[in-house]
Amino acid sequence: MTTPAPASASFLVQNYNRQDVRFIRGAGCHLFDEHGRKYLDAFAGVAVSALGHAHPRLVAAISQQAGQLLHASNHYGILQQEALAKTIVQSGFPGRVLFCNSGTEANECAYKVVRLWGNVAHGGAKTRIIAFENGFHGRTIGSLSITASAKYREPFAPMPACEFLPFGDADALERAMGADVAGVFLEPIQGEGGIMVPPAGFLARARELCTRHGALLVVDEIQTGVGRTGRMYAHQHDAVVPDIMTLAKGLGGGVPIGAAVLGTSCADLLKPGLHGTTFGGNPLACAAAITVLDEVLTPGFLARVTERGDQLKQGLEKLFAGSAVRGKGLLLGVQLPGDPAPLVKAALAEGLVVGPSGNNTLRLAPPLIISEAEVDDVIAKLRLARIRT
Q1: pLDDT of residue 9
Q2: Could you tell me if residue 1 is inside a domain?
Q3: 136 catalytic, yes or no?
Q4: Each residue of 302-354: pLDDT tens digit?
């Protein structure tokens, strides 16, 4: 369903189906529009606003950094980058971090490293790349080439070669693997594809197969990382260590930043001049991300994410009895009989912000700071929204 663009938006490229609401202020888990109406945010700007809106520590960190230095070129050392990289590595796995501005750029970097792995580390002997059906990794040509959905790919064809397998099918992956595979890209939970969770043991099998065949395992944590699923990174639920992890969305709490974490096996492949960014990892973005990680890594924070996620999931399962409710922590999806757009719009009319995922899934990804009472309010507003549809 397409919402006509208002006259005030006529100077914008019309590549979004926008709701006719303009948020101008936020506080905690609430948003306020230009008319002063209050909304409970259960979408967090597509899992971005990890600490909600106008979080005092995040506001203070951004304000302080803005008063000191907004930008410094990567031709020089950046203290905030160094501190942030240390925290990411120590909360994840041994390696090094390359900062960028978005998730698609992080995956583009990972794609290039996989190519270097095949061409440089293995003398061109590894050329194949494997990804999974229903996955989504970004909008640049490289990241789009590992995104399976035809609606995203076909308008920009031809794409660089990639083989797509059924998500969660470890046996299919084993049959497809070989000495010529350079890398395997996967999401621990498919965020844009309907909040699809793979079967137990799938990530572990993927890790074992990549190790056996000398391929890089790339785990896309753009939507699932930074505490979203109740662990710092979603692959940690399976005690799996990838070769590359990509991050963005919640990392900056609303300030654009992405990161590719390159494990020790491949971190040295990117020599000076092979990859770079003007804005990536600037002092402002890194100062914001340092604050977000400091909050998320506070003892008890992730346990509360798990508690609120369990509460929300139970409420959704009761409200949508008979429908599949998928996900972990505070990344949840409800499978609907059809297009989620009418329910998303009805929820907005009730003062609740939710979103779609895939063709038939309602997505909920509230700020990680959501309270018990606010979770109850999400369910209450959704109940009223269902009556509207």
Answers
A1: 75
A2: no
A3: yes
A4: 999 999 999 999 999 999 999 999 999 999 999 999 999 999 999 999 999 99
Model pLDDT, residue 157: 94
8 Å CB contact between 19 and 345: yes
Active site residue 249: yes
Domain range for residue 369? 7-55+300-388
CA distance 284 to 307: 32
* CATH number reported for the structural domain that contains residue 169 in this entry: 3.40.640.10
- Residue in 349, 312, 351 with CA at minimum distance from that of residue 334: 312
Helix or strand (DSSP H, E) at 155? none
Q: How deeply is 308 buried, as exposed, middle or buried, from its count of CB atoms within 10 A (0-12, 13-18, 19+)? A: buried
Choosing from 43, 93, 99, 136, the catalytic residue is 136
- Do both 262 and 166 map to the same domain? yes
Q: Which of 249, 313, 328, 381 is catalytic?
A: 249
Helix 341-349 with 372-388: angle, nearest 10 deg: 110
Cβ-count burial 82-115 (b if 16+ within 10 Å, e if not): eebbeebeeebbebbbbbbbbbbbbbbbbbbbbb
Closest by alpha carbon to 185, among 126, 116, 149, 137? 137
